[in-house]
Amino acid sequence: MPDSDNRRIRKTLTGDFPPNPRADYVELGVTTPFSFLRGASEASDLVATAHSLGYDALGVADLNTMAGVVRLHAEAAKASLRPVIGCRLRLVTGEEFLAYPRDRAGYGRLCSLLTKGKRHDTSDHWQAKGACDITLADLAAHADGVQLIVLPDDSLTARLPELTRRLPTLRHIAASYLYHGDDRARINRLDRLARAHGLSILATNDVHYHAAERRPLQDVMTCIREKTTIHKAGFLLEPNAERHLKSPAEMVLLFADWPHAIRATREVADACAFSLTELAYHYPMETVPPGETPQSQLEKLTWEGAAARYPQGLSGKVHGLLVKELEIIGLKKIPQYFLTIHEIVLWARAQGILCQGRGSAANSAVCFVLGITSVDPAEQELLFERFISLDRDEPPDIDVDFEHERREEVIQHIYAKYGRHRAGLCATVIHYRPRSAIREVGKAMGLSEDVTSALAKTVWGSWGTSMGEANSREAGVDLTDPLMARTIKLAEQMIGMPRHLGQHVGGFILTEGALHDTVPIGNAAMPDRSFIEWDKDDIDELGILKVDILALGMLTCIRKCFDILRRQYGVTHDLASIPQDDKDTYDMLCKGDSIGVFQVESRAQMNMLPRLKPRKFYDLVVEVAIVRPGPIQGDMVHPYLRRRSGIEPEDYPSPAAPHDPDELRAILGRTYGVPIFQEQAMKIAMVAARFSSAEANQLRRAMATFRSRGTIGRLENLMVGRMIERGYDPDFAKRCFDQIKGFGDYGFPESHAVSFALLVYVSSWLKCHYPAAFACALLNSQPMGFYAPAQIVRDAREHGVDLREVDVNFSEWDNTLEPSGNSFALRLGLRQIEGMSPVAAGRLIRARDEPFTRLSDLATRAGLNGRTIHALAAADAFRSMGLDRRAALWEAKALRDAPDLPLFRSGQDEGDEPAAHLPQMPLCEQVVADYQTLRLSLKAHPMAFLRASMARQGFARATDLEGVPNNRRVRLAGLVLVRQRPGSAKGVCFITLEDETGVANLVVWPKVMTAFRKVIMTARLMQVAGRLQRDTASGVTHIVVESLQDRSDVLLRLSDRSLAPPLSRADEVRHPIPAPTLGHPRNMRIIPGSRDFH
Amino acid sequence: MQERSGNALPDDLPQALSVEGTHGPVIHAVNRMAQMAGVTTGARVADMRALCPELRVDHADCDGDRAALERLALWARRWCPWTVAEGGTDGDCGLILDTTGSDHLWGGEAEMLAQMEADLSMLGLSSRLALAPTWGAAWALARFGPVRAICSDTACLPVAALRLDGETVLLLNRLGLRTVGQLADLPRLSLARRFARAAPTRTPLTRLDQMSGHLPEPVSPPEAPPVFRADARLAEPIFDPTHHLPDLCAALCDQLARTHQGARRLRLTVYRTDGEVSRIEAACALPSRDPAHLAFLFRDRLEKIDPGFGFDLISVEAPVTEALGTQQADLAGRTDAGLELSQLVDRLTARFGRNVLIQLQPAASHIPERAEARVAPLTEAPVIRPVQAERPQRLLDHPEEVHVLYAVPEGPPAQFQWRRRSYRVARYQGPERIAPEWWHDKPGTRLRDYFKIEDEAGHRFWLYREGLQGDGRGGIPRWFLHGVFD
To answer: Any chain B CB within 8 A of the CB of A721?
Structure first.
């Protein structure tokens, strides 16, 4: 992957910030970008500027939100500044206040107030997302302990008596000297008004950006907010750039005539004793039975679980691990965290929902014996320190995958058990990315849609964090044009600004007390979902524990497969009971026969399997981890393969003389001396580069989120330098670090790879031994995985599964297995039919106590409407009645949709119908119609109809490629299955074609790609000429393309309607890869990496 | 594809028009180059841009297209009186002409079609023409038949030629019914039972009958909009048309009054005996049908026409009109003052040209000299919240530099010299800081700090200092006087 900036860099402060002496003035009216499209400077900029201007404390007051306070809190802590936490409230009646809580209780009330405004509107209905309705009465009810400062407007004089009466904590009127011409007169007026009501004025510069240079960005934000352009915005914009952070000295000078206004800021700030670190966090206590402490309960459950996991008795190693872990958990005071997750997992198991922990939690033996994770500490080397460490002051992270179709049940269980006031989803802050930034800034600057689109570039565009000059030149934009240059500069500033809040995929916060005392809760756009205002990083910052309830499609598939095994084959299995080290399973994987199997089904993985030749479980762990940008970028793949196959001797780089030459053997022994996992890279840093645990921690953080490029560069020099110093080969040192950089994008820690490898093995075993049941479960769990139903069905057929058509007399809603001889045949279900609803299917199945013989019979007994019958007929589901597709459609059209009244039941008004002679539907048209209605066809492959003419023209079939010698030129044609251009492949595009005999893999070099761009982007049926390349060791073949031709037109010959063959779900032209979201890959719902990289 | 006047791009660049779809803009129409590049209508613009990066996309003006088609239908009345524009806004539209009894005027059907194609191409339009006994058949032949088909066989055309929706066509295809002929061969009863109770676009039987003429589908052309025009045909050529003008205007106003219209544009055309034609145009700010006023708009302008050997035809037209009800003078018998103003504007504009008369309007800008805009007279003013701060009544066109004595560089002046007179500052208010409009002004433009100044004699001035000391945008800030308060 090119030196990848495709992850957003969360700007953060680094460096030394000695504490400032106490300043006379504290800025309280600070707006951050979390007052969306208002504040134009991020917390890091504000804090750094405040520090350099000599502030010792800085307020934060975002409009009706607390979303930005954690970031300011965190940055301020780094710069030795005291953050003063508050918010800016705007009532529905228009009054605005700065609100600063004095203490924890006041802060809780403020959060509750915001929650009230965000959850319910003024008439107590479900509030729309993003809105916040607060009335004066609400404020008065929650104002205790909250210092209020009213921001003056025209009506203040009239409203002030009422406000002071109803809000006893309102002690100040904000006054700003913003060079509006009448500042002195206005402030004097406010001063008199304040005195008359026993209040005081309070100075604030109403800060919207850290420095005057940010005014253009703030103006553009205003334009975006007000949906206008910069040329039309007029008086919506501020006349000058004075709303920046000014030094205390300058503020004192501006308010020289009103020293009490300056003093007031200090008084308010000093009265705010509250800090976010006080948010003592309590885990729910439900999980602890009376008479037990959380720790004793956890210990009890742990030993019970251990006894169940190891019926033959505990080994000394596991016992030792458990004792050590329990001790650390006790010291960290987080036993309830484990108990809570244990409860959720237990509940899910009781409901028959499959689940499995992933990520670093798999390093914990306690998690294993509690049944949260599946990595056996007796067999694998666990690194508990990666999960929890006494050195690190940050919470552990337990992520649990659930079946994707039933995750919602788990979520609703959590809401039901703990209540919406105690359980909430985390937020995800959606940031401006290059494309959205340039689009919106361009629009505000008055650029046309054409120009912004050219800049934003569409499919396969850049995901970089900056709009580089090269990008714009590529798009044909004249950078010397001042308007364009300005737009790009502004867009660059905009990139990374928060845009809005969304809900996290599954991160739950659970508390003992009311959650809205800690953080405001708002409504999501989704019905019945509410989420807190802080995102994952914020929660980590405050040390709050969250549970990730994630969804994994493969678990659904495996559970459905287990169900089928139990029902049809009478075999009961669970994740743990699958026989280990099954030879047939590994044989199958070695052939690269892995369609449908978890993780290793992508083309890159399928190519890797025959090379890596997995023979034992640990090989699968490596297989999962190796086809990732990390190892590839670090050039670790080929050394590993060579050493594994014995071509190259195992070699452990060693330091120079005084040091232990075998120090790396212990770390890298499992992987033949090649670092593949994150942990190994880390350990190398610690052992070979002598990183201290603090430095290693920095490195780990840098690996996790790639926070700051400055940090990475510094660490690189440090690590490579020290390794060379200690006598390592510079090349090796550099490679190790490159790999760490690669992990910044997508790397797999070993524990995570182990968890996934387990699912790889289980799914492979099922596919190997029960291909019919596995294909059936896969189809029933769609959409998921890499392949479309057509490919799954085709693969099942190749494995000897007998497939049967959808039929109204035999099909259930789901795909099912029906007995056929002494095995089972896979009967396609009604769910495959486009336009079929489960409700209608249910009615049909319930009414099927005897076979349907006529269409009208079906319609009356099952009560189906004409539309549904039409859908069934179009899908050719009436064969058992002796009606083919055409006849069924003809009959279906004649059915009446109206209720069948007795009077009209007998006979037709028009009399008997004369026979109509419709032509026979040829097979090729049947196949086309199958694809249109079912997205697959069991009758034939579309390419089969073209084969005769293709063969005459000298086209090879996919199976023929096996016999073609290496480097021979070949021509072949096929339907396009997948088109991918992974970022790590330097512009190489990979295409998979399918014909009736199999698939062929194409490699398209960038130059060819440019020449045949249109063909690649549009062709459904492609004809290629190229050279065959075969890897001698593994037998993997692909065709290096020389020319391409779009032959979609021949599909037209099959039928009048053009056939749109289903593309794989991984195709990137149809489904452009979503930008990687912020955060560690283990937090992704569905691991995106395999799609990303091939 | 609609072409906009003025900015039409060359035909050899791929272009498309887009409309807003549910998931972002979709392609509405394409030109030939775009079609060849693979751009298809109905696809998303983003996808098509990926396919053809140099594609130019503009917003489609569906209403405009519709209006243009309707105008074209009227234009087509040169061939026969019954013409309609058909089709909705979905892009599949055309013209239907009932040429029964007209073709012989053009030398027969084939010649008429050729003539039509030639005339349309003169307008820059490409066309597909067909002639058939029924609307349905002509529609089908024009789209699916041979070039300039005349009464060709429709049986071999695809069922899509029956003006059916996509779903019905798909169903018919799945039933193996590909051509109109196959469909027509089916028993009527079978078709009726299956397709009877639906909209015409979903009932093949209705469409078949319309095509064959079993169901009448008359062409009911909309009435052409009225033309307001008064002519004076003269037996003898004259040299000065002035005397005919009042009568012509009166006649025109009579016509306008009958349909309650008022003229917004006027065109006077004089035809010289030697075939030369001269035109004078005039416009009204408000619709008017006052003959005296209209005649006045041409006064003195007629003289500028070179009479040559004299005129023998003068006509006055009102090409653009607006509804204008009957007006009543107010109870005092006077006419509306607004009307008088508008008539004054018309007369001045007619006499001195369009750019002479302007109206000042507030504009939304903090920069004082940009806070007003010059617009055409009687333009409706936009609602603009004026600046809160007080502005001087008189603003100098160009701020005049003054020499200033001050106590502190950032502070107000203590004394200044303007137009060789010294003023001592008695009182001041400010500063009001106005930053340059960064999107508008040259980089390096300095901000202004405005002060309201009162001198010892009570004169009030508006001064500003350009820039701040040490703002890095030039040397010592200069002072200017920008306005005077009365």
So the answer is: no
